[in-house]
Amino acid sequence: MATTTDARDADIARAAAAIADPSRARVLRALLEGRALPASVLAGEAGVSASTVSGHLAKLLEAGVVRVERHGRHRYYRLAGPAVGEALEALARIAPPLPVTSLRQSTHAHALRRARTCYDHVAGALGVALMAALLERGVLAGGDGRFHPETAEGDRLSAPGRDTTYRLTAPGRAELAAFGVDADELAGRRQLIRYCVDWTEQRHHLAGALGAALTDRLFALDWIRRGSRRRVINLTDAGRTGLERTFGVALDA
Q1: Closest listed residue to residue 29, CA positions, set 102, 74, 92
Q2: Which pairs from 75-79 meet CB under 8 Å and 24+ separation?
Q3: What is the pLDDT of residue 239?
Q4: Which InterPro entries has this protein been placed in (predicted)?
Q5: 224 phi/psi in degrees, rounded to 5
Q6: What pLDDT, in 10s, does the model give residues 130-177?
Q7: How far is the C-alpha of 82 from the C-alpha of 16, rounded, in Å?
């Protein structure tokens, strides 16, 4: 996928054609968690045969939307980068919702609103609560964590934020280091602090290298776990206690 910021120079039609097929769209939704998945799993997510998903993956690879990793004899696919995840989230903002036809789908939708991955960082109610806590504690500064549609210029729901510049404070850097997230080690990998306007909560959640590292740390501590459905994450009892004690994050049971 093109990385230029000028849409006039980007082959939008080519990228759009690559993701327009419903089966390929389901493959990409499965990869929005940020994990690398084998073709067999993606075939199940898309509801197609192994041979059919191979053709879809070839088209996505050709368009630069996904990339492949080799681990021994096995191949794993993941989104080509954060920009692809951001583009898919932005498309979700203008796309009509899929019809909810079962209690299972309704429960899944509720779980996504509560806590989910947005590419490689935490989103949903948990994500915005964590962002608010970091601002309240002075770990981050520069904004209030809220989406203000009446004054927004670049900010849109379910899209990377542009109107607010957050920064990591000196005390915040030390607090995160004590928690196991060293911001100095993240320098140069990608932009340290970004934010997304969460489409379910209509507030900001933390993205960028810092958001990804913080999410990795929460997984490592077993404070959050991946759910049985794509993109859903579950807050563990240890996580509920730990987040409240460490950052003052309090969520309803």
Answers
A1: 92
A2: 75/38, 75/39, 76/36, 76/37, 76/38, 77/31, 77/36, 77/37, 77/38, 77/39, 77/42, 78/31, 78/34, 78/35, 78/36, 78/37, 79/28, 79/31, 79/32, 79/34, 79/119
A3: 95
A4: ArsR-like_HTH, HTH_ArsR_DNA-bd_dom, HTH_Metal-responsive_Reg, WH-like_DNA-bd_sf, WH_DNA-bd_sf
A5: -135, 150
A6: 999 999 999 999 999 999 888 889 888 777 899 999 999 999 999 999
A7: 17
Residue 250 CA to residue 183 CA, distance in Å, equals 25
- Encode burial over 112-142: b for 16+ CB neighbours within 10 A, e otherwise: bebbbbbbbbbbbbbbbbbbbbbbebebbee
C-alpha closest to that of 41 among 75, 65, 82, 73: 75
Question: Is residue 32 predicted with pLDDT exceeding 70?
Answer: yes
Strands (E), 30-158: 37-38, 66-71, 74-79, 116-118, 121-123, 140-141
User: How does pLDDT run across 34-85, given as a tens digit for each residue?
Assistant: 777 888 878 877 888 888 999 999 999 999 999 998 876 778 898 998 888 8
Task: Report which of 106, 91, 86, 123 is spatially closest to residue 200, judged by C-alpha positions.
Answer: 123
CA dihedral 204, 205, 208, 213 (to 10 degrees): 160
Q: Using the structure block, give the residue that is written with the tokens 């490592």.
A: 220
Residue range 197-250, pLDDT digits in tens = 887 788 999 999 999 999 999 999 999 999 877 788 999 999 999 999 999 998
In sequence order, the 6+-apart residues with CB closer than 8 A to the CB of 208 are 121, 190, 191, 192, 193, 194, 195
Q: Which of 39, 43, 42 is nearest to 73 (CA)?
A: 39
Let me know: does 42 contact 77? Beta carbons within 8 Å.
Answer: yes
Is residue 141 helix, strand or coil? strand
- When comparing pLDDT for 234 and 13, which is higher? 234
